[in-house]
Amino acid sequence: MKSLVFFCWIVGSLSGQQLWPVPYERLDRRPDVDPYCQALYPFCPSGDPDGRIPVMTDSDIISVFRLQTPVWEFKYGDMLGKFHIMHDAVGFGSARTGRNFTMEWYELFQLGNCTFPHERASVSAPFWCNQGAACFYEGIDDIHWKQNGTLEKIGEISGEVFNEMARWVQEDNKTGVYYETWTVKSDASANATTWFESYDCSQFVHRTYKKLLGLGAELSSQTPTYYTKIYLFSGEPVHLGNDSIFQQSSTKDLATDIKKFFHSFRSHQSFVEMIESLLEAFEKVVLEKTFYFYYNSEYWKLPMKYPYIKITFEEIPLP
Ligand SMILES: *[C@@H]1O[C@H](CO)[C@@H](O)[C@H](O)[C@H]1NC(C)=O
Ligand SMILES: *[C@@H]1O[C@H](CO)[C@@H](O)[C@H](O)[C@H]1NC(C)=O
Ligand SMILES: *[C@@H]1O[C@H](CO)[C@@H](O)[C@H](O)[C@H]1NC(C)=O
Ligand SMILES: *[C@@H]1O[C@H](CO)[C@@H](O)[C@H](O)[C@H]1NC(C)=O
Ligand SMILES: *[C@@H]1O[C@H](CO)[C@@H](O)[C@H](O)[C@H]1NC(C)=O
Ligand SMILES: *[C@@H]1O[C@H](CO)[C@@H](O)[C@H](O)[C@H]1NC(C)=O
């Protein structure tokens, strides 16, 4: 299987064809965050400052929980019920010590900052505060997850498997650092081409389940497992380039166009404001049929197609 994938990659590269979906780029290490990016709410306040995960006794039995809750603004705001915007996490409980833990992956500077960039007078390119990271902390707040959400035990693993998984989480957290809100697809049908995959809290949960499965765990849910997906629909994306677009005179018009596009999507303080602006901007996208998309620190032009933008809550079974 691996050699087949490699072979296809070679053939794809030689023929100059882009492979879809574009692979999410992993880095050697997490870059420092620019001091311009300031979190309104501190990231992972109750986690270990160095991101350490406690070591379990190899023979311990660890319960695994599926956790899901509405993003709080959707729980209390007037958007409740209009969109199922859910946040996903994984819980663990040690039989030996009775201690339990929550593990999640989310934006350092909230969703608005991961979805749209800032305009800075001193910087020519749009400026992104779009890192996301894993947060591991002691405790499971049962009420928080249970009410209007999900708290379900989906399996048991050994302490040894847990420790293996913890090492993988540290590595995953160092190499996959940029949050990606959107999934970009050719259309809304079942066999559509995926141009770009999102990289968000639910993708982290899926990666974790897959890792646990690879380590021999068996996970199963009594209820269907639904996840929030935020889609863009477009024809084949066109690669534009990185920040050098905003420095070269040859791409001056493109640079102006991209900046004009993002101007109407300025980052917002609250997620609800962002969704509202998104709905306003929807008209613009429908009219102009262009979306400038940022992925792996590069820009792409999306020739947008009906139904343009969609937020869904769809079933993705456990692996
Ligand atoms: C988004 O980033 C800006 C710029 O750093 C910051 O002022 C703002 O607080 C951030 N928003 C949130 C919700 O963290
Ligand atoms: C992941 O990286 C962030 C940002 O550096 C850090 O705050 C966090 O503690 C790390 N989490 C884990 C579980 O390593
Ligand atoms: C996690 O531990 C707390 C404190 O002991 C307890 O109240 C809660 O019910 C536990 N949650 C789960 C899902 O085990
Ligand atoms: C659950 O949703 C209801 C509205 O349907 C809301 O009044 C209630 O506060 C929510 N509970 C929690 C714990 O978020
Ligand atoms: C899948 O794709 C084929 C051709 O590419 C098309 O004819 C068919 O209608 C598609 N099926 C669905 C469910 O969209
Ligand atoms: C940006 O793209 C240019 C042209 O393709 C390339 O030479 C440059 O190394 C890239 N810069 C970064 C920071 O990746």
From TrEMBL:
Gene name of the encoded protein: cln5
Family the UniProt entry places it in: Belongs to the CLN5 family.
Protein role: Exhibits palmitoyl protein thioesterase (S-depalmitoylation) activity in vitro and most likely plays a role in protein S-depalmitoylation.
Reaction catalyzed: 2 1-hexadecanoyl-sn-glycero-3-phospho-(1'-sn-glycerol) = 1-hexadecanoyl-sn-glycero-3-phospho-(3'-hexadecanoyl-1'-sn-glycerol) + sn-glycero-3-phospho-(1'-sn-glycerol); 2 1-(9Z-octadecenoyl)-sn-glycero-3-phospho-(1'-sn-glycerol) = 1-(9Z-octadecenoyl)-sn-glycero-3-phospho-(3'-(9Z-octadecenoyl)-1'-sn-glycerol) + sn-glycero-3-phospho-(1'-sn-glycerol); 2 1-acyl-sn-glycero-3-phospho-(1'-sn-glycerol) = 1-acyl-sn-glycero-3-phospho-(3'-acyl-sn-1'-glycerol) + sn-glycero-3-phospho-(1'-sn-glycerol); S-hexadecanoyl-L-cysteinyl-[protein] + H2O = L-cysteinyl-[protein] + hexadecanoate + H(+)
Name recorded for this polypeptide: Bis(monoacylglycero)phosphate synthase CLN5
A GO MF term: hydrolase activity, acting on glycosyl bonds
The organism of origin for this protein: Carassius auratus
Keyword vocabulary terms for this entry: Glycoprotein, Signal
Entries under InterPro entries matching the protein: CLN5 (IPR026138)
One GO term (biological process): lysosome organization
Keyword Glycoprotein among UniProt keywords: yes
Signal peptide (residue range): 1-16
Entry GO CC: lysosomal membrane
